[in-house]
């Protein structure tokens, strides 16, 4: 083949190859439309799926990230500033979340509270008295209270003055030999874990639905701001249509009663017109133990250290004794000596004065005071509930709060407490925040004592070492309050519920309660 012929052949071969390579294959028009529709559908599906996944991730961030709690409006009005700077302070929502997460409680469901209802038992027959308004304790004590093993006594002690008035001394009498076996058994269960898991369902954290009568029982703890709440309830009664009453004033009030006195008291209370709220300084009473309908239980708590400081200076305020004299006349206690009245807490603790010494597991105090906040939730069994800073009493008090109390609030978190009261007990506390802020000038100062002094950090540390179980119970109650509050929003922002703006106006509440 000649050179030209070979070249011509190669050119033709290349033309054929190019024609095949760049050929256009016709497609039916219908097929093109189907392919385009399929591409659009896939794109839309991926977009929707990605968007839904992104939303779920954001929800998980809200529920699982501690830093998001502040964005939810769940921060409390923590007013006791001596512990405010701590990163892991359990008395804040951030600290509570971290604690629950570290112990694995965040993901659990709430156990059936009714399963432990039969374990709740009432009281022994002993009277535990304290002075009216100042609430100095005077106790009727059962003969044998020894032989009950608790955890080892703390070495550190605090303490309190020989010039204390006789009315402040603790008295013991043999009353009724009545002890509840089940409560004694509970004391042996100190090593068992009592802690229940939590979730964010408000209904599971609300004990109001278990009440069998339209009656609120406020067995108020001393020095927690209970008089402010009583005045608020009196005002709410006019708005929401219920009555409020408190026990009559007397030189001594009974904190722990024998069984017959308990029965007489609650039988009389249940005969009152409903709806009704009753307030008294008294330990928890189990109404169902007497085959009587269960009320709605509420209470307030306070930092145990702040309660002791408040009590120390409250009974050293001259106006307190003048007020007692005006109310009780000759039955009022006399004003103590100048030495007692001028004793500051730092000196009292440093010198281990009898008024500032807290002996661990002690039942008979050298003086009457209010060191036992757990007593008001533990109940009437003096053998179980009276030993000071007892772990058994603390665990019983926790169980009672978890299974019986609708709300245990604190003025340290005013807005959270009022929000929970409004939501969990609306029949009685509807409009609580509005009523509070309209009368805040008076309500925030009821029974306030201006005779106070700065307490040193050293004294606070000594108090903290002697109040370990009291402090643990206090922190437990605050955790529960925060969880009740968080459950109301299902993890979402509350909007304006965490604060309240009320226009300035004339206060119409001038009545004395």
UniProtKB/TrEMBL annotation:
Family of the protein in this entry: Belongs to the sulfotransferase 3 family.
UniProt keyword DNA repair present: no
Entries under Pfam families matching the protein: Sulfotransfer_2
Recorded topology in the membrane: Single-pass type II membrane protein
Name of the protein in its database record: Uncharacterized protein, isoform F
Main localization of the protein described in the UniProt heading: Golgi
Organism: Drosophila erecta
Location in or out of the cell: Golgi apparatus membrane
Annotated Gene Ontology cellular component terms: chromosome; Golgi membrane; nucleus
Composition bias type Basic residues, residue spans: 126-141
Start-end of Basic and acidic residues biased regions: 110-121, 147-169
Keyword Transmembrane (UniProt): yes
């Amino acid at each position: 083949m000649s050179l030209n012929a070979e070249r011509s052949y190669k050119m033709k071969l290349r033309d054929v190859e190019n024609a095949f390579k760049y050929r256009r294959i016709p497609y039916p028009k219908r097929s093109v439309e189907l392919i385009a529709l399929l591409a659009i559908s896939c794109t839309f599906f991926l977009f929707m799926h990605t968007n839904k996944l992104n939303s779920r991730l954001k929800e998980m961030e809200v529920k699982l990230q501690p830093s998001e709690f502040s964005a939810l409006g769940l921060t409390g009005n923590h007013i006791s500033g001596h512990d405010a700077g701590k990163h892991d302070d359990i008395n804040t929502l951030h600290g509570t979340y971290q604690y629950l997460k570290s112990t694995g409680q965040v993901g659990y469901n709430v156990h059936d509270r009714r399963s432990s209802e039969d374990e709740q038992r009432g009281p022994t027959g002993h009277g535990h008295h304290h002075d009216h308004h100042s609430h100095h304790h005077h106790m009727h004590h059962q003969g044998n209270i020894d032989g009950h093993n608790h955890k080892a006594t703390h070495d550190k002690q605090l303490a309190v003055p020989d010039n204390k008035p006789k009315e402040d001394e603790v008295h013991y009498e043999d009353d009724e030999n009545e002890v509840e076996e089940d409560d004694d058994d509970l004391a042996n269960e100190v090593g068992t874990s009592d802690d229940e898991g939590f979730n964010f369902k408000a209904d599971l954290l609300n004990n109001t639905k278990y009440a069998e009568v339209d009656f609120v029982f406020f067995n108020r703890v001393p020095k927690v701001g209970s008089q402010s709440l009583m005045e608020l309830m009196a005002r709410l009664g006019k708005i929401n249509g219920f009555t409020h009453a408190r026990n009559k004033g007397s030189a001594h009030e009974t904190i722990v009663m024998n069984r017959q006195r308990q029965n007489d008291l609650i039988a009389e209370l249940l005969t009152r017109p409903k709806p009704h709220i009753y307030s008294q300084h008294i330990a928890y009473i189990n109404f169902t133990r007497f085959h009587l309908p269960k009320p709605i239980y509420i209470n307030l708590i306070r930092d145990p250290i702040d309660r002791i400081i408040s009590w120390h200076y409250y009974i050293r305020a001259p106006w307190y004794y003048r007020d007692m004299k005006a109310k009780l006349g000759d039955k009022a206690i006399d004003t103590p000596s100048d030495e007692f009245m001028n004793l500051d807490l730092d000196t009292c603790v440093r010198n281990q004065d009898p008024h500032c010494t807290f002996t661990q597991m002690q039942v008979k105090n050298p003086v009457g005071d209010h060191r036992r906040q757990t007593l008001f939730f533990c109940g009437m069994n003096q053998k179980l509930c009276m030993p000071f800073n007892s772990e058994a009493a603390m665990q019983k008090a926790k169980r009672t709060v978890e299974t019986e109390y609708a709300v245990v609030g604190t003025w340290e978190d005013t807005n959270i407490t009022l929000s929970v009261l409004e939501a969990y007990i609306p029949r009685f506390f509807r409009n609580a925040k509005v009523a509070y802020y309209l009368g805040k000038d008076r309500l925030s100062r009821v029974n306030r004592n201006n005779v106070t002094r700065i307490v040193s950090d050293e004294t606070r540390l000594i108090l903290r070492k002697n109040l370990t179980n009291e402090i643990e119970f206090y922190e437990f109650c605050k955790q529960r309050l925060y969880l009740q509050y968080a459950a109301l929003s299902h993890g979402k922002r509350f909007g304006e519920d965490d604060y309240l703006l009320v226009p300035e106006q004339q206060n119409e509440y001038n009545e004395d309660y």
